Amino acid sequence: MAAIEEQIQSFREYVRRMIDYKSAIALLGWDARTKLPRKGVEARSQVIGTLSTEYFSMSTSNTMGDYLTTLLVHEQDLDPVLQRTIEVLKKDFDRMSKIQVDRYEKFIVLTNTAQTVWEEAKATNDFAMFEPYLASIVDFQKEFIGYWGYEGHPYNTLLDAFEPDMTVDILDQLFAGLRQDTVALLSEIEKAQPIDDTVLSRHFDVERQREFCQHVLRKIGYDLEAGRLDESGHPFATGIAPGDVRITTRFLADFLSTSIFGVIHESGHAMYEQAIGENLRSTPLHDGASMGIHESQSRFWENIVGRSYAFWQYFYGDLQKMFPEQLADITLDQFHRAINVAKPSLIRTEADELTYNLHIMIRYEIEKGLIDGSMAVHDLPQIWRSKMKEYLGIEPPNDAEGVLQDIHWSTGDFGYFPSYSLGNIYSAQLAHAMQKELPDFDAMIARGEFAPIATWLKQHIHQHGRLLTPKQLIEKATHEPSDAKYLVAYLNDKYRTVYGI
Amino acid sequence: MAAIEEQIQSFREYVRRMIDYKSAIALLGWDARTKLPRKGVEARSQVIGTLSTEYFSMSTSNTMGDYLTTLLVHEQDLDPVLQRTIEVLKKDFDRMSKIQVDRYEKFIVLTNTAQTVWEEAKATNDFAMFEPYLASIVDFQKEFIGYWGYEGHPYNTLLDAFEPDMTVDILDQLFAGLRQDTVALLSEIEKAQPIDDTVLSRHFDVERQREFCQHVLRKIGYDLEAGRLDESGHPFATGIAPGDVRITTRFLADFLSTSIFGVIHESGHAMYEQAIGENLRSTPLHDGASMGIHESQSRFWENIVGRSYAFWQYFYGDLQKMFPEQLADITLDQFHRAINVAKPSLIRTEADELTYNLHIMIRYEIEKGLIDGSMAVHDLPQIWRSKMKEYLGIEPPNDAEGVLQDIHWSTGDFGYFPSYSLGNIYSAQLAHAMQKELPDFDAMIARGEFAPIATWLKQHIHQHGRLLTPKQLIEKATHEPSDAKYLVAYLNDKYRTVYGI
């Protein structure tokens, strides 16, 4: 056992080094998006490339292979953190080992080029320019699936990379009811009296927006001594290390929602990582359990808490004090309705809470179709338009605002989109379970008491990091498998009240 | 030759990776000093440690040894950049190879602890607490010198680490005349009418200071698209990569000089690195030639340009517009004199341009004495006081403001201090050579034309990076060896005018 103890020690050290590389890469990325001077961009890409290559080498090296083989023999004797660390690393190792290095490198070169081509294609509204690249990327996905193998639908193995254990069968079921109900609810909303949300587009001084956002962050429990708020073109949250989880936002003088709800959203991601257990430090488990679980945290805070009536019962007075001229004539009720308008729109990232999932379903269906061969890349613009028409009742006037709008396909991230809606589904289910244990939920929020919510989330989700799978987390926290009915009920409840229908 | 071409290619790639690590380490360090949240400090140290270890391993690896051996055989066939790259890396390799790993690790552990102890010793004014650590560090220096060997004085090999080719003989000679003249000039100044510099301690709005500093930076030629200005407790400049050379400063509402002259000083460092030749990219030559040459650039801009009458002929109007109330009653002459007060003081980092070198000489003499055994660590407080009395005419009331004031000895940086004064000596000599080629020097500055100065510096110093040694740079640029007489003449000229003596 002495030899194995040494192996474990050496493995821990090896993994710690990998995580340190990841931390450096995260900082290099954060800086590139928030602080990096223009002329430093080229050199920065090279540095990130060098460290990423090293990280990748370490995770697929013979050394790693030997560690995994040796330690798996003794798996039963290892503590749960070590067991799960090995499991998580082995999954990456196996996946990568099945792809020949030259094929993987070709894929990386392709996606790097494809991103640039996509940017130009989007800017010039020219799908034909992007089409051959997308076709090659889809071919690569199919090739990789061939190496990896799959059960059921070939798309399952792509899903699994972002949301472990998720399958087309489960997703189809989750989405079916959600889609039907959303479309029905949306058509009722469209018949109701429209809500005036022009107040959100009045002029709001950016410095004051910043101040208000900091105030909200402090109150809801984002630890500014273990993170910071900066600005970037596309807001994001990034966990650089334990005690250093940063968020960014964008301040628009003529649209208040961008900063406030962006900040609450990103802080949801960040509070998750800030609360991961110390026992997972310097392991790959000091991370979110999956993209879907991560998104459930940001959506929970942004929508279920941040757009609730109770939240603004507490904060609206402060906001009015900050912007007395802009908000003097707007009641709490009016404000709450303004931030909860639901309306079909073309761009996913600007969509409201209700219609957002329809945007995701379109992408999910297209990805499935491309992977199982029932759709061709060439037909996507037309497929896109007809699905938009079917689900949202509107059609993009051009491909830039249609099939070309998202970066994901150019980077080869097939299987990612469903995570966004899974986040919504999980968030409502978690909220339902939480409210059973915290029946005072709304009243607490209205009093500005967020600590019990943070404690519940920490206990059931955050502290576990990636020690448990998404499925285990949801089932332990809510005592049942994922179910979209809670999201359906929440959306109905909210929008029927907001629109008086 | 095909095999050697391949070796060269592979060596270049290896070195490029090393430089990428260095760039990541530089960013991690910059961030730690400017942006890092408090709770992220511990994890950050670990990440920096991991990458530094990797960098160190690469520079002392068998792979590096093999490259150097193989390529040195073909040295004559290599281009000058490659030749010098090999020379520079071989110097580090040889130095490190001569120290056994366990001794080096012990030294690193010692200095890490010693820094903490030093901080506490300084805070509590307790030299005895620091004494045993300093004694051990001195012993290590002597041990290392034993491995490295030396010619002439044992201190020479320590000097050489910071200022290649510099020796005790040369330094003693440079310092002797400078000390004598400085002490004499200082005693004349002390008899002259004192200058009123209280204007600098009026209240200056920090935002406006920032704006003015940005204005100065733009005018003198610091490229803000290849760098940025941030705030930190101790101002510094750091070259993160080509196109990314950042500076920091400190803004004090009740002392104007800190930000303005700090910013000009750091931009001198930064403009140096911003102008290093593209041909040196991704090699260790994309760096300053030495600490002394680096300091010559910051001192040149801060003192010779930034504290000149001509500089304020151009900028004082702008400064007055920025601070009309504070400066309405102060003429250009009065302002120029206020920023050029010379007065003995206790703390090196706060010393003026004239007395600064005396602080350095005290440290230099002590370091020499400790290394050659003519002084004992135990006696340093007393030695410090008597030298302060002799050179500056004042004595510190305690060791915190005396022998304990600097961090350098706790980090084991023996041989570093002289670089600061070498910077002053070089800067005056370079200015003298420059003024022969740009006879319009003062008038140009008074007109706000800084480009010819930047061009001269780029041509003679900056572009060469570390391709040439300090000695080569100075002799090529000024057509003679380093000589302190230019600094002496400059100081006399300036202070006799300022004080009317």
Topology:
2 copies of one chain form a homodimer.
Chain A: H1 2-34, H2 41-60, H3 62-73, H4 80-97, H5 101-123, H6 127-148, H7 156-162, H8 168-191, H9 206-220, E1 229-231, E2 237-241, E3 244-249, H10 256-274, H11 291-305, H12 309-322, H13 324-327, H14 332-338, H15 356-372, H16 380-392, H17 418-437, H18 441-446, H19 451-460, H20 470-478, H21 485-499
Parallel strand pairs in A: 1-3
Antiparallel strand pairs in A: 2-3
Helix pairs in contact in A: 1-2, 1-3, 3-4, 5-6, 8-15, 8-21, 9-10, 9-12, 10-11, 11-17, 12-14, 15-16, 15-17, 17-21
Explain the overall architecture:
The structure is a homodimer of 501-residue chains. Chain A has 501 residues and is mainly alpha-helical. Among the domains of chain A are: 2-97; 198-345 and 448-467, no CATH class. In chain A, 64% of the residues lie in helices and 3% in strands. A 3-stranded mixed β-sheet of chain A has the order 1-3-2. In chain A, a hairpin with a 2-residue loop joins strand 2 (237-241) and strand 3 (244-249). In chain A, helix 1 (2-34) crosses helix 3 (62-73), helix 9 (206-220) packs antiparallel against helix 12 (309-322) and helix 12 crosses helix 14 (332-338). The longest helix of chain A is centred in the first third of the chain and has 33 residues, at 2-34. The interface between A and B is large, with 36 and 36 residues.
